[in-house]
Amino acid sequence: GQQVMQIPQYQHVQEGEDFTTYCNSSTTLSNIQWYKQRPGGHPVFLIQLVKSGEVKKQKRLTFQFGEAKKNSSLHITATQTTDVGTYFCAAKNAGNNRKLIWGLGTSLAVNP
Amino acid sequence: NAGVTQTPKFRVLKTGQSMTLLCAQDMNHEYMYWYRQDPGMGLRLIHYSVGEGTTAKGEVPDGYNVSRLKKQNFLLGLESAAPSQTSVYFCASSSHDRGPEQYFGPGTRLTVT
């Protein structure tokens, strides 16, 4: 079935370093959503990308949707300790758009 | 607005016991979801509902039942708990036409011994 692969699974960075997580699919995605889950918390919606080649920014976070709409990335510039958590991508299920297909997430640890 | 609430927050069950997890949302959302989250497994959909009185199976429905008698509530039942159901359970809701995002509750941490 439809799958969304997310890499890396874990990343440790020093505060101030950049961080990127990638989401890949073998099939064309209609859109992709990104969520953040703080340790002990629940997933919180960050953004949705819909258009081919779309780039959106939220302060130090940059989200991209690939030209072929088969991949997406989240890049954090100059990480801070507040960025710690797990970042998930999720795509609409092609066969049932009421459901999301979730990546396994990338856990980010930031050393102060 | 309270958003999405879940009760209880924590629960310990013995194998074979039953329980019901309650999810409530005050955003008038049509869609509601139950997920379980286990280390390294991400979020897996158990059951979902697209409206009052309707439910459907997700990826991992076995051992669980759900009901949505009122639009704002979505109940998840475990009839005979097993240690494999030890997990964190999240409820989420979303709107049919007011934005793509799913809003999550704070989660229920369930341990089955």
Radius of gyration of chain B: 13 Å
Number of helices of chain B: 0
Mean pLDDT of chain B: 96
| Cα distance spanning the termini of chain B | 36 Å
Q: Please estimate the helix content of chain B.
A: under 10%
In percent terms, what proportion of residues of chain B is strand? Answer: over 45%
| Number of helical stretches of at least 4 residues of chain A | 0
SSE inventory with pairings:
The complex is a heterodimer of chains A (112) and B (113).
Chain A lengths: L4 E3 L2 E5 L4 E6 L7 E6 L5 E7 L5 E4 L2 E5 L5 E6 L8 E9 L2 E7 L3 E6 L1
Parallel strand pairs in A: 2-11
Antiparallel strand pairs in A: 1-3, 3-8, 4-5, 4-9, 6-7, 7-8, 9-10, 9-11
Chain B lengths: L3 E4 L2 E4 L5 E7 L5 E8 L3 E10 L2 E4 L6 E4 L5 E6 L8 E8 L8 E2 L3 E5 L1
Parallel strand pairs in B: 2-11
Antiparallel strand pairs in B: 1-3, 3-8, 4-5, 4-9, 5-6, 7-8, 9-10, 9-11
Describe the structure.
The complex is a heterodimer of chains A (about 110) and B (about 110). Chain A has strands at about 5, 10-15, 20-25, 30-35, 45-50, 55-60, 60-65, 70-75, 85-95, 95-100, 105-110. Chain A has about 110 residues and is an all-beta fold. In chain A, the strands form 2 sheets. In chain A, strands 2, 4, 5, 9, 10 and 11 form a 6-stranded mixed beta sheet that branches. In chain A, strands 1-3-8-7-6 form a 5-stranded antiparallel beta sheet, with no helix packed on it. Chain B is mainly beta and about 110 residues long. The relative contact order of chain B is 0.33. Chain B is globular. In chain B, strands 2, 4, 5, 6, 9, 10 and 11 form a 7-stranded mixed beta sheet that branches. Classes of the chains: A mainly beta (about 110), B mainly beta (about 110). Chains A and B meet through strand 5 and strand 10 of A and strand 5 and strand 10 of B.
